[in-house]
Structures are given as C-alpha cells and as structure tokens.
Amino acid sequence: MTLLVATTWDPEPWVERFQSLMPELPVVIPGDIFDRRRVSYVAAWGPKSGALSGLPALEVIFSLGAGVDHLMGYPDLPPVPIVRVMSDDLTTRMSEYVVLHCLLYLRDQRRYDAQQRAKIWEQDRSPPRASDVRVGIMGVGVLGQDAARKLSMMGFDVAGWSRTPRAVDGFETFAGREGLDAFLARTDILVCLLPLTPETRGILNRTLFERLARDGRLGGPFLINAGRGGLQIEQDIVACLDDGTLKGATLDVFETEPLPEDSPLWLHPRVTVTPHVSAVSSPDATARSIVEQIRRHEAGEPLEGVVDLARGY
User: Fold this and answer.
1) Catalytic residue flag (residue 276)
2) Which is nearest to 228 in space by CA: 205, 257, 206?
3) Is 228 a catalytic residue?
C-alpha cells in the first residue's frame, strides 16, 4: 500500500505531513522510483499528464483542495472514487474570507481607505446595518452553508441558490433556473462559491449581473467570487463596474492564474484582487483529513465527500 502525492504545489510539506501522520504508509511523488503496482491512494492537485496512469491497484483519488475541476478534464482518469477534501480548517478559512469582504462592503471601508490617503474627514451619519443588507450565496454545499450561518449571526439577511433544490435550516434557499431571478432580485452582495462544471462555466456574466437588486441600502450590487475563475467573464465584470451595473467586486479567482500583469482588474478602483487565498489548503489540516479517510476506508467504512462524476462535484 503506497500513497502517491501528485501536485503542482511544492510536494515536500505534504509528503512530510503524511509520513508523520501515518508512518506505516509509504509516500512517493511522481519523480521518485517506486513500484506503481503498489499505489493504492493518490492525493492530487493538478497532476501532470501521465502521473495517474499505470496504477492497477489504485483505490481512491483524494483532491488536495475543495474543488475537483482540476481532475474532471484529466486524460485517462482512473475509474476509482474521487474524494473532495473534508476539512473544517478549509471551511473556516472560506467563511472568514466571505464575512470579511461582506463587512468591508457593509461599512464602506474602501471609501474610508481613500479618504485616509487624501486626508479627508467625512462621516456617514446613516450607515446601513447588516440586517439592511441582503447577501445571496450561490452554492450551498458545506462551504456555502457555513458562510451563510456566520453571516446570519452578524445580522445579514442571507439566502442561497443551488442548481438543484436543497432544504437548509436557517436561511431561505432558491434553486434552478426557475428560482434564479427571484434570488438575484433580492441580492445586494452576491457571493459565488459554486463548483466549476460545464453548466456553471461563465455564469457570472452581464446577463446575470443586470438581474441583481437595484433597491438596496448599499447603492448597488457587489460581487464576491471565491469559487473558481472559470465561473466569471472578466470582460463583463470590468464593463459592468464601469457602467454602474456592479458597484464593486472582490475576486480571489481568475480565468488565468496568476492574473496577467496587463489585466485591467489589477488597478480598477472598484476591484479588490486577492491571489487565490480565500481558503488555502493547509498541509497539516488537509493531510489529517485524508489520513482519517484512508483509515476509515481500510476499516471497511464508507468514504465521505465522494464526487458525483456525472455532476462534477
């Protein structure tokens, strides 16, 4: 039984953590010399072509990040279960990011930053309360539900949308094409945490932005995308910011990463750019989660977080 770590990230922290957590499990990387017939598990993020080939004993592929779109287009993907990471650490980090940027928009912090640089003392005597602001979360899986709960605790008026109906305690949910218009019409801050699938690619576009609420206390709708870069049409985001369809955008993911130097998003006055750090996969927490899953699997218990390959998440 061997674990293969196949990632475009520096593999050494991952190898060290897996070895310390499960010393009885040999851990290898694609550049090593090892018996491919003994590989039972793969922990992967963006594996290079051929890295997952010729593994006759492979039982499970674990994604090292929350998404699995990096595996969906992989050539000759082995016919074994793919498991997305199940980590409270990753969930908490994502909620921190979402809450932070919703609060920045609620409290108009970018304006005060600009006033500080210009040495302007100007107070808003009637700022909105969290309860005055409607947050809509696209994607109500583990990440979306946790972010929704924490935003609700802060007082925000939260609703969620998913492609298929999901009943969730604590906030209103909408689903499918038939529920999208009503969801968008009651949204002042749109938070996108959707997985990237053929159905969701490019969903963040002008047509969608034009259906967001225009009657909110923030003076216009804001976008926060911490899902996947392929969900957004960046040309549409820039155009909608320029003509007022969007009032602002926080983007952690991009169509091309790293974000090209000539992208207008870098210096746009209404855009906050972060370098795909909303929910960084920690080697410590993620490896611990995967080792727990391996032990469960070896004991004959069911895996958690198995991806539905037909849906892509």
Assistant:
1) yes
2) 257
3) yes
**3-state class of 224 per DSSP?**
strand
Q: How far apart are CA 70 and CA 195, in angstroms?
A: 11
Beta strands 172-175 and 222-225: pairing type?
unpaired
**Secondary-structure breakdown of the chain: helix, strand, coil percentages, each rounded to the nearest 5:** 35, 15, 50
Q: Is the dihedral of CA 279, 280, 282, 286 positive or negative?
A: positive
- What are the pLDDT digits (tens) for 153-169? 999 999 999 999 988 99
At which residue do the structure tokens 């003509």 appear? 243
Catalytic residue among 93, 163, 228, 270: 228
Q: What is the pTM of this model?
A: 0.93
- Of the residues 110, 268, 276, 288, which is catalytic? 276
Task: List, for residues 20-51, the tens digit of each pLDDT value.
Answer: 999 999 999 999 999 999 999 999 999 999 99
Q: Are 43 and 280 in contact (CB under 8 A)?
A: no
C-alpha separations of 51 from 19, 35, 71, 105 in Å = 20, 13, 12, 43
